[in-house]
Amino acid sequence: MSSALRPYRAILSARFRMLLQYRAAAIAGLWTQAFFGITLIMIYSAFYHSSDTPPPIALPQVISYVWLGQALLAMLPWNADAEVHDMVRSGSIAYELARPVDLYGLWYTRAVALRTAPTLLRAAPMVVVASVVLPFVGAPAWRLAPPPSLTAAAGFAVALGLALALGCAMSVLINISLMWTIRGDGVVTLFTTAVSLLSGLLIPLPLFPDWAQPVLAWLPFAGMFDLPFRIYTGHIALAGLAGVWLRQAGWTLALVVLGRWLLGRGVRRVVVQGG
Amino acid sequence: MTVDQAADPPGGVNADRSPGAIRLFAAYASASIRSQLAYRASIALATLGVFLVTASEFLALWALFERFGQIRGWTLPEVALLYGMVSITWSVCDAVGRGFDAFGAMIRDGQFDRLLLRPRSPVLQLLGHELTLRRVGRLTQGVIVLGYAAQSIDWTAGRAALLALAIGCGVCAFLGLLVLQATSTFWTVDRLEVWNAFTYGGVTMSQYPLPIYQSWFRALFTYVIPLGCINYFPAMAILGRADPLGAPPITGWLAPLAGPVFLALSLQVWRLGVRHYRSTGS
Hints:
heterodimer; A: mainly alpha; B: mainly alpha; 0% strand; globular; disordered N terminus
């Protein structure tokens, strides 16, 4: 690997080792998320059994969608990096500016660690519980089903990687917004609201009214959760794979360019007090 | 360790001439509110943020009804009653019970020792620890949703009284959960996320009619953690619906009482925990 990437690799591995400390929290989280998943599945099942009109997405697909959401929850860019938040508030952001690396690259690397480490800890056990344990304890209808084909699985893997890249670009954007608001409660909440509603975290996006579908599909949020999940469940046909990847990559590029531009402006107006 | 009464500063709170519990709580509450109002813009934005997050949650619920029409015979205005009631209940409990929610940190850094040294009940001090203003955002959302639900309800004085009773008892039930959560930190030191399954999970569960869930789940939330009792049964009586599972109509009035009973039991467990408490050190 070239020496230009070395500092980023070091930051990534240091952040990873720190974030992987929270194993007990991950186990507690597994229980809570399994409980939430089961509650949501009972609610969706009740809705599906209350209506005769053909649904836009089948119940087993919704169930797999719910489990993927619970497993990959930590990947969503729904909050600011707590340490960056403190840096902006306390003024120690001056140290970040003094480092001989590109600030955007530095924050992006931090975001990758922040969104990946907890996800790695939580996703694997959640997937085991949802796909192996549930059928074993007599609830096969509630399980996370495997993807319909190997191609769908591979398409999902690529889309998930792109979802991470896109989510991290959004994470950095949230961090940058702190440079204007300092306390950040307001703007961060706007991001949280948009991400949880428009990514498919609250309900699977296909369940929103039909007239909203084109809008939802073209916003950046769908690429973080909904589109990969629909590839996994077979709801998006293999012919649509390239289109999804392109949309995800395009939005990532757009958010990175926007983030770099905003960061440049933010750094120029940042005021560090004290000595 | 004993407290040297003579060391109390002039005007300090002595055990023998201390104000009543309610006046002390009011003093705590007003101090907490004034400290938050020092950052007016920030608290206003945070409140608006909480409102937006919960409003988007209701938007998702609306979308499901737009798609499916009803859930096991319940329409959106009927489910909105369940939703509004639990939103109000949880926001009040969350605002008052913040001290119990943040209890893990108090155990970790030994702050709880200070509470024990003061000559007032630690429960009262924890209740007054912080009255979180931004919960007003969720409360407002709950009131609006309840207002929407109220339009299709045939109101009588009795039904209005039952609504008030259910919300009061509901706050007790959720507080009981927060007390149990805090008690568990006597043994685990850190606050465990497992309780979120019952608090936040309980809120989500309560937003829908109980009969849509499986029997083991209904039993858990009726007999062990009585969140179904404080929401679903009174809501059914307010709507004038009959329980599909055959509970008699009077259940709507009796079931909410499980909330205060649950809180009383939780406080007993809490006392047990306090007696076994060993400080983590300075």
